[in-house]
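Hi V.,

You were right to ask for the full record rather than a summary. Here it is.
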Amino acid sequence: MSAIHYPFNKLIVVTGAAGFIGSCLVSKLNKEGFNFIIAVDDFSKVEKAHNLEGKTIQERVERNAFFDWLDKNQEEVEFIFHIGARTDTTEFDRAIFEELNVSYSKEIWHRCVDYQIPLVYASSAATYGLGELGYVDDESQIPNLQPLNAYGDSKNEFDIWALQQEKKPFFWAGLKFFNVYGPNEYHKGRMASVIFHAYHQIKKTGKMKLFRSHNPDFKDGEQMRDFVYVKDLLDVCLFLMNHRKNSGIYNLGSGQARTFKDLVSDTFQSMQLGPIVDYVDTPEDIRDKYQYFTEASMDKLRSIGYDKPFHSLEQGIEDYVTNYLIPDAYY
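Predicted structure:
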């Protein structure tokens, strides 16, 4: 399979560029020689300021000014990564999600159609809800999914809308991100990964608190998630940018569910400490929405030629803790 080569002075747009995944993507693009990057975000959020330090960017464009900018500069744009979104699963104001995750994404889609710009956008495994239909990226099942919160609803709504469109970008892909962890997530508060919180809790107290299981099928700490290291996600994004065929919606996880107990033990080990874990009750307000198992089926992405192995949980945590959390470094 031959890669697509195009001028390195063409512009690549990254929305959400100051956020966790967006800033890591900008860094990855720089490492691959792409320096003509348009960073789109709400740059008034000063807590994310460190994420773009030291990165090569052609221009910063405020989120609310982006469509005017794109209308004027579309001929220079080679690719759009639409990573920006409101991702807070505890936000209940559906109007915010409708504006930022649905309407904004539709505007980007329409322009990618009109201007013939290929598009990769961020969806979410939150669309799968409790996994009643499994975790297979079968597009025919997407209208039947039942997300558990407004965030998941907004992502699923856009996926459904995209699939229904008669006019589509000549290449597009929606990526259902599972539990992503890695550097540059320090600003996310409660929404940061369990690994981030485990590291800081262990550093402060010497131990880690995990939720008890309230499901008889799972022991305490053996609730399972598909944790995917952000560096693997970046490799997939660049593969799709160069591949530019087989449009559609894809899972993006590690393909391997692991327990929270494993995660915490690996974090202690990376900090060269023995594990001490306390279990606390899952708060009642989220107990009925708590996922006990997620695991991405990765066959669809593999079927279009992506063959790079993913980090194991042990490998990802070791790299994250040793090279980023302990030295307080950015990617």
